[in-house]
C-alpha cells in the first residue's frame, strides 16, 4: 500500500464549540480533553434520560461512566454518516444501563435484597408511563409521524429541555418547538 494512503489526518483542534464529530475524531486519536468536552456536553442529558428509566442513581452513574469508557475505547467506530453523535451515545448509554441493572439483579438470586420490604410499589411515574405506553395516549402517540413522535418523546416524556432535545435530535431549537406544538395539536385531535 502506498505510504500516502496509510497516513491519517491528525484530529482537528477541539474546544467547547467543536462539533461532536470532531470531538469523537479527537477522542479516537487519544485526546483526553475531547472526551472531557463530550462528557460535559452529553452527560447531563444522558443522566436525565436514564434517570427517567431507572430509579437507582448508582445504576445510572455506572451506566454514564461505562458509556464514556466505551466512547474512549470505541470512538474510532463512530461514523457521522450514520447519524448524530447524540443518538450514538444514547444507544451506548441505554445498553450500559441495562447491563448495570442485570449485574445488580444477578447478585441476589431467589429473593429480595437483605432488609428490604418484599412489597414493591410502582412509582407514580411508572404508572403514568405505563398508561402512556399502553393506553389511548400511547395509541395516539404511535399515530404521529416519526419526527413529531421523537420531539414529544424527548421533551415531554423524557423531560429534556428544548435545547437538549435539539442537540439529541440534531435539529434547531425552533424546529423542536414547532414539532412539539404540531404533535400536541394532533394528539388533541386523536384523543377527542
From TrEMBL:
Family matches, as Pfam families: Sigma70_r2, Sigma70_r4_2
Residues in RNA polymerase sigma factor 70 region 4 type domain copies: 140-187
Annotated ranges, domain RNA polymerase sigma-70 region: 39-105
GO biological process terms held by the UniProt record: DNA-templated transcription initiation
InterPro entries: RNA_pol_sigma-70-like, RNA_pol_sigma-70_dom, RNA_pol_sigma70_r2, RNA_pol_sigma70_r4_t2, RNA_pol_sigma_r2, RNA_pol_sigma_r3/r4-like, WH-like_DNA-bd_sf
MF annotations from Gene Ontology: DNA binding; sigma factor activity
Keywords carried by this UniProt record: Sigma factor, Transcription, Transcription regulation
Top-level taxonomic group: Bacteria
Family indicated by similarity: Belongs to the sigma-70 factor family. ECF subfamily.
Full protein name: RNA polymerase sigma24 factor
Originating organism: Sphaerisporangium rufum
